[in-house]
Amino acid sequence: MEPLRVFIISDSVGETGELVAKAAVSQYIRADQHADLKRFPYIDTVSQLDKIISLAAEQRAFIVYTLVSKQLRLYLSEETEMLSVPAIDLMGPLMDRLEHELGSPPLQEAGLVRKLDDDYFKKVEAIEFAVKYDDGRDPRGIMMADIVLVGVSRTSKTPLSQYLAHKRLKVANVPIVPEVVPPDELFQVDPEKCFGLIISPEKLNHIRKERLIALGLSDDANYAQLGRIQEEIDYFEQVANRIGCEVIDVTNRAVEETANLILAKRK
């Protein structure tokens, strides 16, 4: 038996049209028949359409198309109707309805859905990176990161890492503690992608006390003592000077403000 031929025409890669065509065709294929689906990607001229329409007429093929250009959609619709070639517009009716409901024309730019997908996956990858290399868990992330944050405890390293990850940046952060020798990678990384976070001792004292209380602990622990805090800050400054990185005072800054400062430095 002659195969069921379907031509998929797209001004991008044609994945959407092929998936829909396969799903529909699968409902009509019998055991003694098979479907022949052929994809025609990156079609953006009338001359290209003429060749495909002519071929479809010769091979008695159905045409399924996902074209964002209204001009090409109208041309294809008129030509296939004139030549009695069956053709299905998968995107046009929905785009026309959206244009009517939203009151604005479409961008008519091919491949935007793929760009959106790429953007989404880059963001997910950056978020997973921030989690994996949070709080100095694995120093190997330092060399792979787009941005490296260093600072003493409670200087918003983790929330800042996550905020920047939503900007599709891979961020590793490393806590600086006097009793712990910083990883060698911290002094091998490009200083321009490393940012130190500093905070006033008084502000940090308040933040740490609140943290201890939230955990059900006494707020007079050494962790929240001004003497201990100053010792940590002094050590942090030594490490930051050795790295040669820029230091940002986060005392009265929201995470968004600090992130904007870092993003501006990267431009």
Walk me through this protein's architecture.
With 267 residues, the chain is α/β, with parallel strands linked by helices. Helices cover 48% and strands 15% of the residues. It contains ten helices and eight strands. The strands form two sheets. A four-stranded parallel beta sheet has the order 2-1-3-4, sandwiched between helices. Strand 3 (62-66), helix 3 (70-82) and strand 4 (87-89) form a beta-alpha-beta unit. Helix 2 (46-59) runs parallel beside helix 3 (70-82), helix 5 (112-132) runs antiparallel to helix 7 and helix 8 (201-214) crosses helix 9. The chain starts with a strand and ends with a helix. The mean pLDDT is 92.
Number of helices: 10
- H and E string: EHEHEHEHHHEHEEHHEH
Total E-strand runs: 8
Mean pLDDT: 92
Query: What topology, given as strand order, has the largest sheet?
Result: 2-1-3-4
Beta-sheet strand percentage? 5-15%
**Structure classification:** alpha/beta
What is the percent of helical residues? 40-55%
Low-confidence stretches: none
Topology:
Layout: E1 4-10, H1 15-25, E2 35-40, H2 46-59, E3 62-66, H3 70-82, E4 87-89, H4 92-102, H5 112-132, H6 140-144, E5 147-151, H7 157-165, E6 171-175, E7 194-198, H8 201-214, H9 226-243, E8 246-249, H10 255-266
Parallel strand pairs: 1-2, 1-3, 3-4, 5-6, 5-7, 7-8
Provide key terms for this protein.
about 270 residues; four-stranded parallel beta sheet; 10 helices; 8 strands
In short:
The protein is α/β, with parallel strands linked by helices. It has ten helices and eight strands.
